[in-house]
Write a structure and sequence with these properties.
Blueprint: H1 4-9, H2 13-44, H3 46-54, H4 59-95, H5 101-104, H6 110-135, H7 140-143, H8 151-187, E1 197-203, E2 213-214, H9 217-229, E3 234-240, E4 249-259, E5 265-275, H10 279-283, E6 287-290, E7 304-308, H11 309-314, E8 325-326, E9 333-339, E10 354-358, E11 363-364, E12 366-373, H12 377-391, E13 396-402, H13 403-410, H14 412-439, H15 442-446
Parallel strand pairs: 5-10, 7-9
Antiparallel strand pairs: 1-12, 1-13, 2-11, 3-12, 4-5, 6-9, 7-10, 8-9
Helix pairs in contact: 2-6, 2-8, 2-14, 4-6, 8-14, 9-12
Length: 456
């Protein structure tokens, strides 16, 4: 059980926090940039402020003047931000790798406009308060001198530059960490060979079965597989209820005789798959012990299973898991083989326990079809559909993609996160560099470098 909002947002909650954090840091850099410019402007207006003070302007009135100027500047920036935001929101929604009703419904309304105006007001106070306080502290004598030193103002500007540089480095480090995590996800072993593998989805027509689970569904799919394997160039074909990197059914496995230290039966949560006999050969999942499924395993009830290495480890076994029995309602299921670990739950690198059952004993009416072949996918799809429809003209084939495309689709969300935070980091560096350049005195940028001789 979980709240409906969490079910709609799903894994995109991290993306929303990433957006909020990146925008917040960019806003701080923009405020620091504007504060530098206003502070430099207040230093140039020292004579004007001194004359106003000499004519009777109080310090509070001078502070209000600076804050009002900053508020006008923030209001103009807020209006321009609203106009640009209306286009940027549509662009981000179009680039989202995963469709979300909550994010796709994002639009500008009264709340968005009110929030933008509130942020503009807070930003005005943030970047105008330091120039306002500093600009209102002029003393009459030194300020009226055109050659007066602005050492304190320079110290404030140096502080702002340091803050901008620190925020930029923070975003760059965050982008580097996300890219490193993305590379770790992509480069980690997947436990199977995705090359030259085509995947598609099948669902038996309602005339065949009206239930999601049907003991006879595996026989209907087996007829499809035999016709597909007869296509020249096809090495093997298989069905699976949940291929690697795709969601699958979660269940529990209970090994007969396995106990917890407390004396209770040990239960391990696992990903359950219903696969055909050539599934492991098609994806080249290594067999570590025992055997895989055979056509002779067909029968009226589920009697054999294949487990992965992680499930055997959770129960404290290795290759000795072969021959052990799992407690199931009706009759125990015997483990006949152990295969290698496959990244079953998305791109999570940690192995997860997996429990395989033969589709000839029990199968769903909605499965994935995987085919290994040296034929280009574009030429193979038409032949596969023809072979399937020669057995059942009502059978629909949908969701066609290569296994490489399926992997790329699984990594699309973290790749988009890396792109987003990378864009924020580069933008922050550009903004910080522009801010540093804008407050650097022109004479220090243009003056030639002269070397003074040490000799008289």
């Amino acid at each position: 059980m979980l709240p409906l909002r969490d079910a709609i947002v799903g894994t995109q909650r991290s993306l929303l926090w990433l957006l909020l954090g990146g925008v917040g840091i960019l806003l701080l850099i923009a405020c620091a940039n504007t504060a530098q410019l206003l502070l430099a402007r207040s230093l140039r207006r020292s004579r004007e402020i001194a004359i106003r003070a000499a004519l009777g302007a109080s310090r509070s009135r001078l502070i209000r003047q600076f804050l009002l100027e900053g508020l006008v500047l923030a209001a103009c920036g807020g209006v321009l931000g609203l106009l640009a935001g209306a286009w940027i929101v549509r662009l981000l929604v179009a680039l989202l790798p995963v469709r979300s009703p909550l994010l796709e419904s994002a639009h500008f309304d009264v709340r968005a406009i009110g929030f933008t105006l509130a942020i503009s007001l807070v930003s005005a106070l943030a970047f105008a308060i330091i120039p306002a306080i500093r600009g209102s502290r002029w003393t009459l004598g030194p300020s009226l001198n055109p050659h007066a030193s602005g050492g304190e103002g320079n110290r404030w500007r140096h502080t702002m530059i340091a803050i901008e540089a620190a925020l930029s480095v923070f975003l760059l480090c965050g982008a580097g960490l996300i890219v490193q995590n993305l590379w770790a996800l992509i480069s980690a072993p997947m436990g199977f060979d995705p090359n030259h593998v085509l995947a598609m989805r099948l669902k038996l027509p309602t005339s065949k079965s009206d239930n999601s689970v049907d003991p006879k569904a595996g026989l209907a799919f087996q007829e499809y597989l035999e016709r597909i394997e007869a296509i020249p160039g096809v090495e093997s074909a298989a069905t699976v209820t949940g291929p690697p990197l795709r969601p699958a059914r979660i269940g529990n496995a209970e090994l007969v005789g396995s106990k917890e230290p407390s004396g209770e039966n040990k239960i391990v949560w696992s990903v359950n798959h219903l696969v055909s006999s050539d599934y492991f050969r098609t994806l080249r999942i290594p067999l570590l012990a025992g055997r895989t499924f055979r056509k002779e395993d067909a029968g009226p009830r589920v009697k054999v299973a294949v487990v992965n290495e992680e499930l055997a480890r959770r129960f404290g076994y290795g290759r000795d898991i072969v021959g052990k029995q799992f407690d199931e309602p009706g009759a125990p299921i015997t483990s006949v083989g152990m295969v290698g670990n496959v990244r079953a739950r998305g791109l999570q690198t940690d192995p997860y326990p997996e429990f395989y059952l033969s589709s000839l004993q029990l199968d769903w009416v909605n499965v994935y079809l995987v085919i290994r072949s040296a034929i280009p996918p574009g030429q193979l799809v038409k032949q596969i559909k023809t072979a399937i429809q020669s057995s059942n003209s009502d059978q629909a084939v949908f969701g066609v993609m290569t296994m490489d495309e399926l992997i790329a689709d699984s990594v699309s969300e973290p790749r988009f996160d890396a792109f987003l935070i990378g864009a924020f980091a580069l933008l922050s560096v550009a903004m910080a560099a522009a801010g540093m350049y804008s407050v650097t005195p022109a004479w220090s940028r243009n003056a030639p470098v002269r070397l003074r001789s040490a000799w008289p």
